[in-house]
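Milestone M4 deliverable, item 7.
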Amino acid sequence: MAVFRVVVPQLPEHEAGLRMAHRVERQSVLDGDDATPFVAIVHEAALRMQFGGREVAKAQLGYVLERAGQDNVTVLVVPFAAGALPGAGQTVLYAEGPVPELDTVQVGSSHGPDFLHAQTQPAKYRAHLDWMGHIALSSKAPRDFIHASADEL
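Output delivered:
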């Protein structure tokens, strides 16, 4: 919830609550017999941010590690050492399916989400995500990196 407290203009309490509820609800697709395959590409900066303080950040990293242990979830980490990358600083959710023409991109911003679905837009974001996937840590290194980040808190 802390991330929604630092937006301009400040969100009314009910709006922050709705955004938080949405984030929690969308995670339900990761569970159950029909769990959706999910790949998260997280920049080191996001792992080191302490929205809500040290204890909240530690709990969030623990949650990421828990989810990363699921068979359907892959967490990749882009370290600072990887250098510049396209789309740095954006929160992007790329929803793809068996019909590429229906792919949708949700780009997060301080004023709320924007949904992009015209064919050229998802293609740009797919290229960004592919780039980040190539420069991310490989194998079990992301889990080790997240553990180390949590230990440093």
